[in-house]
Amino acid sequence: MKINDAQLALVDKQIKRILASGNYYSKVYQKAGITGVSSPEDFLKIPFTDKADLRNAYPLGIQAVPDEEVVRIHSSSGTTGKPVIIPYTAKDVDDWATMFARCYEIAGITKKDRIQITPGYGLWTAGIGFQVGCEKLGAMAIPMGPGNTDKQLQMMIDLESTVICATSSYALLLAEEINRRGLKDKIKLKKGVIGSERWSEAKRKYIGEALGIELYDIYGLTEIYGPGIGINCLGEYGMHIFDDYLYTEIIDPQTGEVLPDGEEGEIVITTLVKEGAPLIRFRTHDLSRILPGECRCGRKYPRLDIIKGRSDDMFKVHGVNMFPSQVEEILGMVDGVSSEYKIDIAHDDANNRDIIMVTVEAEGRVDFNATGETIRQLFKSRLNVTPKVAVIALNTLPRSEKKTRRVFDHREE
Ligand code: ZN
Question: By the 8 A CB rule, do 284 and 268 touch?
Fold first, then answer.
């Protein structure tokens, strides 16, 4: 979706503010000779930025307003290196609340609802985002934070919570507990607002049915306000993103080329009115696509498909982008196969083609040859690549407590 004139004017204003502030990005833009934007072509010349810049600017190097205008900071938990600090002005907090309240409204939540908030409160943006949105909407917030399932269930019953906000894993845990304790008749939940992460259809179905609720995916990241910058509407696919606050692009994560609507790639977000820490063309490393056309609900906000995974995990075979989530989906369809796998990609110079080798584990009761063939056919029909498949015994692939590396690309060696 091409940047429109109103958005362009806002970006121009942001660049001029950034340059005047003398912050980290003012130096980046000065060096690149960027003084403003007056056309979509100008916009495309602005360099991308990502988390590494925010770390370089630690702690407050990206602040673009005087100290007296900052009312709050949030921080994203870095798994590696320094955390990222994002300063907010009063208007930033209010804008965030407005977007989040819109999310609740799109989910059909009103001021009569009672919203039980289980994401954590603190430096990160989760719990407090759900809270500011709830207060803006005028609903009753029940600010539980995470954990303490007994208390969660007690409050849910006694206060007759109608909305649960949670991660998908915590929603699943609560659903299981409600099932186990036979409490379904005592709860009044109608809707669940789930922090967007990759979660399976099976999990979604289970939570929805166990709690008897409608589920909504909410999108956001700390660098760009926090959760609440987009949500799906009822019965429709994809999340509406608020284009009066944010401009969204999808790029090829490897080349940086902007992709047309409908094509899958990395989400890049520009904040149009953020004051404390404006970000222009911020690479989120989240993978999705812009859904073409208008939504049946009639809302004009553009839509992002559900998040497919992280661009850092993506790999390319025969020019086709593939994601671990797709491999996991395929393995989930095959009887007797574990969720562990290993993928080796090499280049066959003699025939000038890529070779993809998939190693999976299977239980002893299944026929390894037939299982391998099933997986090969599924890759062929769903991903359009034909791998060589090795089926080995259960618990023979290496496990690690940290994130296990599963994709090995030998082509550049
Ligand atoms: Zn819609």
Answer: yes
